[in-house]
Amino acid sequence: MINSTTAATNTHVMQLPRKVIIGERILNDTSQLIKENTTKNPKIALITGKNVKSKIIGTIEENFFENNINFQWFIAGDASFESVGKIENELKQDKIEVIIGIGGGRCIDIGKMSANNLKKPFISIPTSASHDGISSPFVSLRGSDKPYSIKVETPVEVIADLYIISNAPGKLIASGCGDLIAKITAIKDWEISRDDTNEYFGDYAANLSSLSAKMMLDMSKRIGNKQIDTKIARTIVEGLISSGVAAGIAGSSRPCSGSEHLFSHALEYISNGKCGLHGERVGIGTIIMAKLHKLNWIEIKNALGVFGAPTTAKEIRVDKDEIIEAFTIAKNIRPERYTILNRVDLNKNQIRDLIEEVGII
Ligand SMILES: [Zn+2]
User: Residue 278 belongs to what H/E stretch?
Assistant: First the structure.
């Protein structure tokens, strides 16, 4: 017989998307793809941004009208809890049953958060591959007392149209590569937390996440100056989805987010969000933290450069003082998340020397 106490402590919940569809020009078949989640023809919300809407409205509406889908568009505000609150009221008034987020980080996060609060299924349709939130149970929004990602319900379905994603601005896909390469230091941080604090460490989730980062490093050596085509976009999208799934398996963002993410959240906090994209900041954080972990930071920096991701403070419009300040406060952003920053105690001069050495400033 299983001892109930042991069973309780060993209980581990994995939340994964029910369905992931990756292909080219698949949005003109959206109604078919979401069929399993819309069997009773519920009213569907399409949460998106103005620019994305203008690009996809023809494709989606033609398909939805043809198949008598009951839907309504909603335009997302900025990436804040205030926007979530506003949209939630509209969704409630319109008796929405299924929520679809179409766009980059902001629309996916606002859709995911409101679906979570209203207890409705959420379908994620990323139009760029800029971060791993496209499939993960985490959202990153401004306006809470926690300046880091919070856990919500996992999207029930992810539909990634590679034609749209590979045609998005190169800066977005480069940011996605930064978020994937970040898994190198995230996993190292998780390992040292296991060793120093006895924190749960999931081998499978860690390996899955590491694999995505390794594939990015390998790919950076092969592609050189080649344009990002749908084949390369597929690998990046699959990597981002896998790492989101790794977080679902671990039941926490541990496999995806370590000291480099704490640094990124700190930088965002200091500069009020005016410091590049999420994956751009974590990419720079990864170079710094890799040096602290005594990893091959040059290989990481070179790979980010190949994908066109920033490797200096100037490229994300922050200065030396902001980088030093972000590094200093990073470990206080989320005190319970033990990382390499808990093992080292650097003063301002040592931090400056470190970031100069890795060429961030
Ligand atoms: Zn991330």
Answer: helix 278-292
Q: Alpha-carbon distance 77 to 84, whole Å?
A: 8
- Between CA 188 and CA 258 the distance in angstroms is 8
Output the CA 278–ligand 1 centroid distance in Å.
7
Q: Is residue 330 a contact partner of residue 341, using CB atoms and an 8 Å limit? A: yes
Instruction: Report the Cα 84 to chain-centroid distance in Å.
Output: 18
DSSP string, 236-273: HHHHHHHHHHHHHHHTSSTTT-SHHHHHHHHHHHHTTT
**Structural domains of the chain, ranges and CATH numbers in brackets:** 19-168 (3.40.50.1970), 171-357 (1.20.1090.10)
CA 193 to ligand 1 center in whole angstroms: 19
Residue 206 C-alpha to ligand 1 middle, in angstroms?
A: 15
What pLDDT is stored for residue 10 in this prediction? 73
Three-class secondary structure of residue 183 per DSSP: helix
Q: What is the mean pLDDT of the chain?
A: 93
* 261 Cα–ligand 1 center, Å: 7
AA letter at 157: E
The alpha carbon of 231 and the centre of ligand 1 are apart by a number of angstroms equal to 22
> How far is CA 168 from each of CA 89, 130, 361, rounded to the nearest angstrom?
31, 10, 29
At 44, is the secondary structure helix, strand, or coil? strand
pLDDT tens per residue, range 225-278: 777 788 888 999 999 999 999 999 998 999 999 999 999 999 999 987 788 999
Q: What separation in Å is there between the alpha carbon of 349 and the centre of ligand 1?
A: 28
CA distance 131 to 133: 6
Task: Report how far ligand 1's centroid is from the alpha carbon of 280 (Å).
Answer: 10
Say what the alpha-carbon torsion angle 206, 211, 217, 223 is, to the nearest 10 degrees: -150
Q: Mean pLDDT per segment of 10 residues, for the chain of length 361 residues?
A: 49 89 96 93 97 96 97 95 96 97 95 98 96 92 82 96 93 95 98 97 97 95 81 92 93 96 94 88 98 98 96 97 97 96 97 98 94
